[in-house]
Hints:
Layout: E1 6-9, H1 13-18, H2 22-36, E2 44-47, E3 55-61, E4 66-75, E5 78-87, H3 94-122
Parallel strand pairs: 1-5
Antiparallel strand pairs: 2-3, 3-4, 4-5
Amino acid sequence: xxxxxxxxxxxxxxxxxxxxxxxxxxxxxxxxxxxxxxxxxxxxxxxxxxxxxxxxxxxxxxxxxxxxxxxxxxxxxxxxxxxxxxxxxxxxxxxxxxxxxxxxxxxxxxxxxxxxxxxxxxx
Length: 123
């Protein structure tokens, strides 16, 4: 069995998720723990290929609104939580999509730099 992946929180994703209602935090927390272990999440999830390869959305709701956590699938021993937010319509707000795309680009650039630096040390 794979070792558990570390969760890397990007931007304010952890703070936003922490401010969600207790039941919502529980759903997302349990699903993220399952993802860390290489299992499927315990809530609804869907691919977000329009944002980027390997990007997924975790979804849940309460009587007040819909909640979302966007993450980048496991790369090596890490899982990247890119964004957490509330939404009040079926369509995801453009601003939230732009945040996810920017954070994804930043993470991928950091991974590329780390990989290049890692190869440089081996020679």
